[in-house]
Amino acid sequence: MSQGIPLPPIPAKRYFTIGEVAQLCGVKPHVLRYWEQEFTHLRPVKRRGNRRYYQHHELLMIRRIRELLYDQGFTIQGARARLREAGAEESDVDGFELVSADWHDQVPGEGAVLALDSLAVRQELLQIRELLSV
Question: pLDDT by residue (tens digit) across 25-46?
Fold first, then answer.
């Protein structure tokens, strides 16, 4: 699709609307809504009027899905399997099992408490670690 065109950097924000995510990840909003049905790890917070708020780890996951589908030519099923394999490989980092904790955050102005997905937190930590090792 838009291979070779670099994606813009992800701003330092906690939550992103579906329109912002579409621009940052180079896909249309209806594609994001479809991917939410196909990839169980994509679970944006839904607030008033069913508005979606994506977090940083979800943007990273969307970019990875986009790469698998558009750049590497995987099918949805193949991309799902690849992400599952990657999750299994990353469950044990340097011999230490990553343990989840109860993380909570709030959507700005909404006042609702949300529990962060421990898998998403783990994936984000692994990506930070990879960035630091470069």
Answer: 999 999 999 999 999 889 999 9
DSSP class per residue in 35-83: HHHH-TT---EEEGGGEEEEEHHHHHHHHHHHIIIIIS---HHHHHHHH
Is this model's pTM higher than 0.90 or not? no
Question: What distance separates the 2 farthest-apart alpha carbons in the chain?
Answer: 44
Rounded Cα–Cα distance for residues 2 and 28 (Å) = 12
Can you name the CATH fold of 15-132? Multidrug-efflux Transporter Regulator; Chain: A; Domain 2 (1.10.1660)
Neighbours of 128 (CB within 10 A): 10
